[in-house]
Design goal:
Elements (H helix, E strand, L loop, with lengths): L14 E2 L10 H13 L10 H16 L8 E4 L2 H10 L8 E5 L8 H10 L2 E5 L7 H12 L4 E7 L11 H10 L3 E5 L11 H4 L3 E5 L11 E5 L50 H14 L1 H21 L15 E3 L7 H11 L1 E2 L1 E3 L2 E4 L7 H14 L6
Parallel strand pairs: 1-10, 3-4, 3-5, 5-6, 6-7
Antiparallel strand pairs: 2-8, 7-8, 9-12, 11-12
Helix pairs in contact: 1-8, 2-8, 9-11, 10-11
Length: about 375
């Protein structure tokens, strides 16, 4: 895969290694967005059928992207927290049961479970990495060891949002199946840059905000809900998710039944005529590029830099226990953090600091030379040792 920078309008003087914060939208999405805003000037531009057209196309495209067998298992959501709230609303958690999460998980995938366990007297078990040595492997082993007959659900990301640590979802799924526990995945920091298959992993839910690695719009995302949630109760009671809601003349004949499966969990105003065309095109573009190619491209452009960072004594997770589109660099006392941040500002490099790690998150609009610019900043921040 070749660099796709020409498809984006990123400032020429900016080195943007921060897709985990927010992904830039392409020139094509920019044009679609401007056209969609213009269309709002004519209230007759959209027909009744258009209320359902974009949502259905998005569901079909996303189901194809993540290898879900049925587009009826896909819902349109405004945020990760919304998608997880639907899970929490149907968890049927009981006293004595527990929910397992990992340490320093993103708040949207923590707060719902804090509230859920508090209501019924259940337990929220937080599994943190045992140590920096063999960190990824040991962390995964600790998660697996925590799953037992009291486990109601494991809620994790495919990668950790602060440093890219990979969680072995296949192994976790196998263990949760052995104990009749649910597996709920926050895919916001992985879907679009790391291959994922619903068919292979068989999660009970996969929740994704689109504005990061899917390179889509803010405030619109997608979710997969498996059979465990087919008959659940959505947090929102809107009209468009009801059976036969396409028939506008009969909307006054109130319908107690929902559309099948996950359709019930879609947000109100899911037709969003400005953002929907952008999300649909973003998913189609990812499919065209091939998510596996994006992951390999990120690996290719970061490998030389990772080798240099390791030679400097910096802590980066082992390659087989981290992603290549998102990874953390942990400073040692040989580096001056204040000097490093000043060098980043001078070089106009955008990265994030999350937890105790500098989070580096390149994508297909970056080049190897840009990652090496970040290496140079570390070289300038290394403390001189007096002899």
């Amino acid at each position: 895969m070749q660099c796709q920078k020409h498809l984006f309008n990123l400032p020429s003087d900016l080195t943007y290694l921060n897709c985990a914060r927010r992904g830039p939208q392409s020139k094509k999405l920019e044009a679609l967005g401007l056209a969609a805003i213009s269309n709002q000037c004519n209230p007759n531009y959209y027909s009744n059928e258009d209320f359902f057209g974009y949502p259905q196309q998005i569901k079909l495209a996303f189901a194809d992207l993540v290898q879900a067998a049925d587009s009826d298992s896909i819902a349109i959501i405004p945020s990760t927290s919304y998608g997880l709230a639907n899970v929490a609303n149907n968890l049927n958690l009981k006293k004595g049961e527990k929910i397992i999460i990992v340490g320093e998980q993103f708040p949207s995938n923590v707060y719902p479970w804090m509230e859920a366990v508090k209501k019924v007297g259940a337990t929220l078990e937080i599994v943190s990495p045992p140590s920096l040595l063999n960190r990824g492997q040991n962390w995964n082993e600790a998660v697996l060891a925590a799953i037992d007959d009291q486990t109601k659900m494991v809620a994790v990301g495919n990668v950790h949002w602060t440093d890219g640590t990979l969680f072995d979802l296949k192994a976790i799924r196998t263990k949760t199946n052995q104990h009749d526990a649910l597996l709920v995945i926050d895919g916001t920091q992985s879907i679009g840059a790391l291959p994922f298959s619903v068919k292979e992993i068989q999660p009970d839910a996969l929740i994704v905000s689109s504005y990061k690695w899917m390179l889509g719009p803010y405030s619109l995302g997608v979710a997969y809900y498996g059979p465990a949630f087919d008959k659940g109760e959505p947090i929102e009671k809107n009209w468009i998710n009801r059976l036969n809601s396409n028939d506008f003349t009969n909307l006054v004949n109130y319908q107690p039944l929902y559309r099948p499966k996950a359709n019930r969990y879609s947000m109100g105003e899911q037709s969003n005529f400005i953002l929907s065309p952008l999300l649909l095109e973003a998913i189609r573009q990812l499919k065209d590029w091939g998510v596996e190619n994006i992951q390999q491209y990120c690996r290719t452009i970061t490998e030389p830099a990772v080798a240099e960072w390791r030679d400097m004594g910096l802590n980066i997770e082992a390659d087989n226990w981290r992603s290549h589109h998102l990874f953390g660099i942990r400073l040692t006392d040989q580096f001056d953090g204040d000097v490093l941040k000043k060098e980043l500002t001078k070089a106009n490099i955008s990265v994030s600091f999350r937890g105790d790690a500098m989070r580096v998150s390149p994508n297909i609009y970056n080049e190897e030379s840009e990652v090496m610019k970040l290496v140079d900043c570390f070289k300038k921040a290394k403390k001189r040792i007096a002899i």
